[in-house]
Structure formats: C-alpha cells, structure tokens
Amino acid sequence: MGEARYRPHPFSWVPGDGRRHAIGEARPPGGWPDEAEITALCGDDVHADNSTFAWFWPTCPDCNVAAHHLADVPMPTNPKRS
Fold first, then answer.
1. What is the CA radius of gyration of the chain?
2. What global pTM score does this model have?
3. Mean pLDDT by 10 residues, the chain (82 residues)
4. Which H or E element spans position 62?
5. In the chain, at which residue ranges do the beta strands (DSSP E only) sit?
6. Per-residue pLDDT, 62
7. Judging by beta carbons within 10 Å of its beta carbon (0-12, 13-18, 19+), is residue 59 exposed, middle or buried?
C-alpha cells in the first residue's frame, strides 16, 4: 500500500488550456502528464500543461468559485476604493 499523502483541500490545481483549473482529484506525484485530458470543476475538459510557466496563467474564475465552495471558504470581496 502507498503512503498516505497530506491533502489540505478536497481539490487540486492543474494548469491547462491557458488557465489554472481546479480538479476534484489529488494531484499525482510530479503532476499530470502533459496533454492528459482532465475534467475541471468548471466542467471544461482541459489538456494538462506540466510546465513551470503554466502555473503563472490566470485562474479559471468558475473553478475558483467551485474550489472555495468545496473548501467551505467564502470568496473574498473587493474592498471599496476611496
């Protein structure tokens, strides 16, 4: 049996198709293989990009909302600007 891995949230992030998406599965050691098709929490099927640069892509807004919901953490609100 494999060793249990620490997983603080019930989702993981995977960059794919130009955005960072959330997925309901644990991230495998080393990440997903490039071009692996992943169904994100937003419902999109994305092709994983395991490059370092891909982690700088913007976050998918729909996945962000779904990830906050799964973690039971409210979405931050924008403070009023003066």
1. 14
2. 0.81
3. 69 94 88 91 95 94 94 81 56
4. helix 61-71
5. 12-16, 19-23, 37-39, 45-47
6. 97
7. middle
